[in-house]
Amino acid sequence: MRAPHSYSNVELAARLAVAALVCALLSACDSGGSNGDDRSPQESEPPPRGTLVEDPPPRIDSVSVAELAASLGVELAGQALLEVTGQPACRVDVHHMKYHTVAPGDVPTIASGALFVPAGTEPQCQGERPILLYAHGTTTERAFDMADIRNEDRLEAILMVATFAAHGYIVVAPNYVGYDISTDVHPYLNADQSAKDMIDALTAARAALPTSDAPTTSESGQVFVTGYSQGGHVAMATHRAMEAAGMTLTASAPMSGPYALSAFGDAVFYGQVNAGSPIHLTMLITGYQDAYGDIYSSATDAFEARYASGIETLLPSTQSRSSLYEQGLLPQDQLFSIEPPDPTFAEYTPATEPSEFSDVFARGFGPDHLITNAFRLAYLEDAQANPDGAFPNTTTGGPPDEPAHPLRRAFKTNDLRNWTPTSPMLLCGGNGDPTVFYMNTQFMQGYWASTSAPVTVLDVDAEPAGDDPYADYKRGFEALKVLLAAQAVAGGADDGGTAAVQEAYHATLVAPFCLAAVRSYFESYVP
Predict the structure, then answer these.
(1) Within the chain, which residues score under 70 in pLDDT?
(2) Are 49 and 100 in contact (CB under 8 A)?
(3) pLDDT in tens, 7-19
(4) Fold assignment, 12-258+419-523
(5) SS3 116
(6) Cystine design at 323: which of 68, 81, 319, 474 (Cβ 3.0–4.6 Å)?
(7) Regarding beta strands 127-135 and 455-459, do their DSSP bridges make them parallel or antiparallel, or are they unpaired?
(8) Do residues 224 and 319 make contact, with C-beta atoms less than 8 angstroms apart?
(9) What is the SS3 assignment for 226?
């Protein structure tokens, strides 16, 4: 196995300051029923999961090597991206897939996704090629479609094409249930359902290969899984499900995901409110209510009355985030009341430790808060009675044994501290992440510490040590962080650039360096 490739030109970090913006949609952090099912009323049983609705799936676009290189080379961002990923070698055909899958409760439904197929005369563009199964990050846009690469807002899709498909990976990128053609409630951070969706997309893509437009490109049998933010959780859940089903998985690389969901949720309710939490918790609570039916009796049990009306069908939305905020449909930052739900929880309203995040925590409290104090109080009382095994204190390292609060039960159901991988895994993130706390990666690492799990952990915000194969990514990350802070100060910031770095950290800073490391990691397994 080859060692991961290392980029030696750390000076590229300055140019990456712009290129990293391409990753901004990776986290975007960044109603039940039919979803446009095409089956006739006479059909009593749906086709098997993973069956294509349209076989073959239509090719809706094709990007030539010259076109991709030219489009990336117009702006400085694209030029820097080319230097990180290398010049594209392959034409990329874009197919829009619709396939049979299931919503929560194994209810048959139809979802969609993108299939990016490399083609061309170069050796890596034809013959047997590895499959990359990619899980996208949080998005609030109902019409989100990874196959829509001409849309300037689909930067995540373009990144997948430039980084992987144009270099010989067959990329399968589901949109997830609840997006694009699907009108179902999106099952946000639902580990079982999202893994089924991913596996069904993989099955559908395999049925479409080879395509008539790229007849010499076929799958090699190697399958890699990766994803960022929400997609990191989805990728790890998919790894777990594939191994449980006895499927072949070469390696995975979850990035910056909320894997230890019970601990992460407890941290938030204990006052460590993460950036973007009103969006995230709205999607979590309404998604789990749709899946399990017991999170609340009425939406006003969990959500303040000013937000409760219509909130169950609010996200994903046909409106932009800024529009949702401007109309007062959701608060941008304020998750909890500044008044503690009980005097015993005053020290957590807000939390002040870790001190480097105290300003982030403070923004999560105020008079226009989303969650009722009664809901928070019930949650915290259960967290004290039935604590998590890693937060706030480390005991078992796992999720709570028997949580009583319905949201904590849902978190435990979807917490990924309940298995051990046998296929190689790279966990990548940054320890200063204010959106998806790095504790998620640390708790997974701790949970597997006493096992023989083949897991490598990469913190791109750590000092390189010894013969670190990822040293240049860490140095580049630090250089970019310093550069962004300097730019903020030059623009008038009086905090040394701290706020600017925090705002950019999850999507703009960590994402490109983790993704570059993931490609290096995967390439070490490709013959």
Answers:
(1) 1-43, 73-81, 83-84
(2) yes
(3) 443 344 434 443 4
(4) Rossmann fold (3.40.50)
(5) strand
(6) 319
(7) unpaired
(8) no
(9) strand
